[in-house]
Amino acid sequence: MASQSSAAGRPRAGSATGSASDQAVLAAARHLTSRDRSLVRAVGEHRVLTTGQLAALGFGSVITARHRLAALVGLGMLRRFRPHRETGSAPWHYLLGPVGAVLLGAEDAGDEKRWQAAVRADRQLALERSQRLAHLVGVNWFFAALAAHTRGAGAGTELQLWLSETGAAGWLQGRAAARLAWDGPPRPDGLGVLAEHGQQVTFLLEYDTGSEHLAQLAGKLPGYGRLAAAMAEVDHACPLLLFCFPGPRREQAARRALAGCSDSPALRIATSALDPEQTSPAGPVWLPLLPGWAGGRVRLCALDAALPDPWAVYRAGQAVAREQAAHAHVPPPWPDDPYDDDGSAGPAPAA
Predict the structure, then answer these.
(1) Is 340 helix (H, G, I), strand (E, B) or coil?
(2) How confident is the model at residue 114 (pLDDT cuts 50, 70, 90)?
(3) What whole-number distance in Å separates Cα of residue 78 and Cα of residue 71?
(4) Nearest Cα to Cα of residue 9 among 68, 97, 69
(5) CA angle in degrees (0–180, nearest 5) for 147-148-153
């Protein structure tokens, strides 16, 4: 049985998949709120979000979310489909719609092609049928759960940054481009910055569904080790590396594999076994990967204090070396004297 798609949001075969007239955008824009625009952008940035995830991002109830999302599908801002399940029914999965692509292109002057490519029918159909769909939805639940936590926690708590796999790779490349020119940065599933009551943590996410062999999982650490070294060279601290597992047995086995990797001491790693649809990743669910750690599980924002930066001393030494080098090349406060035969610099002789 094929997945169920919304007729209002699915382009006809052979139609132009990424086109929508300016008139359609203008007509739809009259009905949009700032929340609508934020949700359309979130779907565009993260490729697919479910009803529950969008409710977590911007609504007080799932029922309200369903009604508003149906309206956005009707306006062409979003498309939706429902994957087939052997038992029960899956939630609606929302993709960027053709009118939504034009809206985002208009808001991001000069970036229209990016959004038009995102609504090509072949790409969206491939995503619907992809074996990685469940993984992508799981990654997005992780961040949607953090966003829901911050909405309910009040002032002082904020998900300041949420980047997709592509966005995270670009963020890392921008901070260590010269040192990673040949290998390129690793590609975590996402990157986030969470602030909570005076604490802030920047993290990379590896979302594990249990499909990879443990050797493959541990094989990712050398790339992250190179990233940490490259970032230290330019005086950047490497973000925390979080591994989220589907269950405690998988977590325990993975921790042994990760701890046995020679690159793990150069990284700040924490693990958890949780379903982010049910349990907030912001809570005390993270176990630092440190020899002899006996502090139990800690909150996400407390990991920065629990996991000391293994590159801190090196970065401090590099900063001192740069400062000394800068002082060694500071020119004297007076210009060179053209009348000084020995070429030494000094104040000009009195007239």
Answers:
(1) coil
(2) confident
(3) 9
(4) 97
(5) 100
Residue 17 has φ and ψ, to the nearest 5°, of: -80, -25
3-state secondary structure 256-321: HHHHCCCCHHHCCEEEEECCCCCCCCCCCCEEECCCCCCCCCECHHHHHHHCCCCCHHHHHHHHHH
Q: What is the rounded distance in angstroms from the CA atom of residue 73 to the CA atom of residue 29?
A: 13
* Strands lying side by side in the sheet with 199-207: 157-163, 190-196, 199-207, 240-245, 269-273, 287-288
User: Strands 78-82 and 4-5, how do they pair?
Assistant: antiparallel
Query: For 178, which DSSP code?
Result: G
Q: Residue 52, CB half-sphere, CA atoms under 13 Å: how many?
A: 12
Q: Which residue has the tokens 């993975």?
A: 254
Contacts of 13 (CB under 8 A, 6+ apart): 121
pLDDT of 253-285, one tens digit each?
999 999 999 999 999 999 999 999 999 999 999
Q: What single letter denotes the amino acid at residue 247?
A: G
List the domains of the chain with CATH numbers.
Answer: 4-130 (1.10.10.10), 135-314 (no CATH)
| Segment 127-140, tens digit of pLDDT | 999 989 999 999 99
